[in-house]
């Protein structure tokens, strides 16, 4: 069994990789950053504490990029929406973490359930926020489907990256997990 410090170092390596992906996503996609994908990937691959740090780090980096470089308005409504994104992302993480369970086994079924659950939780909390702050018109089937595809593609890419990094650099990212269908 790995020591706590080596496990923490591996978590930190993958946390940095996830947050690096968030930075790329923030610059490339601005308001379409795949927070549900980041939440699901973090929940499945990191300890609970490191996963929460990863998603909050991704959110914070996104906000810094948005407000500091992409010119997001600094009015109270935009700031509240930013906070709502953090809450939505944590909700998605919580659902995906529950799907992970305690086995630590990575299965295709669990991965599909984690991204689907994280996406639904993220969208529900975001929609509830929009009911208060405005913006429910942005929840058309076409827009939600576009976001779902975006998150699914990012999640697939993140999980492929995780498997490649654990296979190629196990001393840095940990041993590659067993992958099962169910």
From TrEMBL:
Keywords: Membrane, Transmembrane, Transmembrane helix. The chain crosses the membrane at residues 12-38, 50-72, 78-99, 111-133, 153-173. The keyword Nucleotide-binding does not apply. PROSITE patterns: PROKAR_LIPOPROTEIN. The keyword Transmembrane applies. This is Energy-coupling factor transport system substrate-specific component. It comes from Sphingomonas molluscorum.
């Amino acid at each position: 069994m790995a020591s706590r410090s080596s496990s923490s170092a591996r978590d930190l390596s993958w946390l940095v990789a996830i947050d690096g992906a968030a930075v790329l996503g923030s610059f490339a996609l601005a308001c379409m950053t795949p927070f549900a994908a980041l939440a699901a990937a973090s929940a499945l691959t990191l300890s609970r504490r490191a996963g929460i740090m990863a998603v909050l780090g991704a959110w914070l980096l996104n906000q810094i990029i948005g407000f500091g470089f992409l010119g997001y308005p600094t009015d109270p409504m935009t700031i509240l929406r930013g906070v709502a994104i953090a809450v939505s992302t944590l909700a998605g993480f919580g659902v995906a973490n529950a799907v992970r369970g305690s086995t630590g086994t990575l299965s295709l079924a669990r991965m599909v359930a984690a991204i689907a659950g994280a996406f639904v939780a993220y969208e529900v909390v975001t929609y509830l926020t929009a009911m208060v702050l405005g913006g429910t018109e942005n929840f058309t089937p076409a827009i939600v489907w576009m976001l779902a595809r975006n998150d699914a593609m990012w999640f697939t890419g993140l999980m492929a990256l995780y498997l490649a990094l654990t296979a190629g650099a196990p001393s840095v990212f940990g041993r590659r997990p067993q992958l099962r269908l169910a």
